Q: What sequence folds into this?
């Protein structure tokens, strides 16, 4: 008997540990820089509220169905009359779910206008999803365009309108902590309005399968105080700084002589390509290759020499045939573009 009791206690404790682990994993998934349930924007707050109301509605419907089941099979297992059975089925199985789901639908539809309304926006940002990176363009009050890539920074407390499109396949723009997702469709421009409510670093991603390297298409999002954001944007509008060291000058020469300027633009130099990302200030970005590598010298060298291995089917050619000293010099040059 004692042996059986010990086994029962052991099995119970194992079950409890397992339950605690699952609960901890579920709760941990509600937090973080890519969590829709840890909102940092007005849009995300509305979506999170809708989610919890939907969970509550689902719980009510489940409770009603379970109550009917217990009533029919346990509380009163005898044969029911046609009239009482009809009321159980129609009331608990049809009318109640329809009322709850209709209420949730109306509430969800009421949220949609505020997520796309462009009233009182302080800035417009154009984002193009491409295989497999993000072309970003800020529009200033004077109409000037400031081109970046694979990184978005926003001022806290201000409404920003995003114009979203794609030149190749369908992508989906999503920053879970700030708002909802919107598809980027070739030949069409969709709009999304975000209003960050707190500063911090978040993660955006493509939420629509778009090809081989779909999972390698992310971007960091930084929400900043307004003064810091204005200073950052003014710095991004400046042309590239001149190489400071002999190694950086050697890297600039290698960059231009190997044809990199045909695809990439570095404002203030001969490089004026528009096919690939703008690299004018690439050294100051938080990541490289659409959020999959750190923006350090080693990562720059790896990316230039092993592009296809890091991101399969990427359109940028691999320059692994170049001498190692050229790759190193180019990495130093690009990192120096801050």
A:
């Amino acid at each position: 008997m004692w042996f059986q009791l010990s086994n029962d206690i052991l099995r119970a404790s194992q079950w409890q540990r397992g339950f605690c682990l699952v609960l901890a994993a579920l709760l941990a998934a509600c937090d973080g820089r890519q969590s829709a349930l840890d909102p940092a924007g007005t849009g995300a707050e509305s979506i999170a509220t809708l989610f919890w109301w939907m969970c509550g509605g689902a719980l009510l419907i489940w409770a009603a169905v379970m109550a009917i089941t217990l009533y029919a099979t346990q509380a009163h297992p005898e044969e029911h009359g046609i009239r009482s059975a009809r009321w159980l089925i129609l009331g608990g199985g049809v009318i109640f779910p329809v009322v709850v789901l209709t209420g949730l639908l109306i509430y969800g539809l009421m949220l949609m206008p505020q997520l796309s309304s462009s009233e009182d926006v302080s800035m417009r940002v154009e984002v193009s999803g491409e295989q497999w990176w993000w072309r970003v363009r800020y529009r200033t009050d004077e109409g000037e365009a400031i081109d970046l890539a694979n990184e978005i920074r926003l001022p806290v407390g201000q409404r920003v309108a995003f114009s979203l499109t794609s030149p190749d396949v369908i992508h989906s723009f999503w920053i879970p902590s700030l708002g909802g997702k919107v598809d980027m469709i070739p030949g069409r421009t969709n709009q999304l309005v975000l209003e960050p409510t707190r500063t911090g670093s978040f993660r955006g991603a493509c939420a629509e399968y778009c090809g081989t390297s779909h999972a390698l298409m992310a971007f960091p999002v930084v929400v900043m105080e307004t003064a810091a954001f204005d200073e950052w944007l003014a710095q991004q509008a400046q042309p590239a700084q001149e190489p400071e060291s002999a190694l950086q000058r050697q890297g600039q020469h290698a960059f231009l002589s190997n044809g990199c300027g045909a695809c990439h633009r570095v404002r203030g130099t001969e490089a004026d390509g528009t096919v690939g990302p703008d690299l004018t200030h690439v050294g100051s970005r938080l990541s490289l290759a659409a959020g999959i590598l750190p923006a350090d010298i080693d990562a720059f060298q790896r990316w230039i020499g092993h592009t296809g291995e890091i991101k399969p089917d990427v359109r940028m050619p691999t320059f692994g045939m170049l001498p190692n000293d050229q790759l190193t010099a180019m990495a130093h040059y690009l990192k120096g573009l801050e």
In short: Residues 82-116 form the longest helix (35 residues). The chain has two domains: 33-78+117-236, 246-336. The helical segments are 2-28, 42-75, 82-116, 226-236, 246-257, 297-305, 307-310, 324-335.
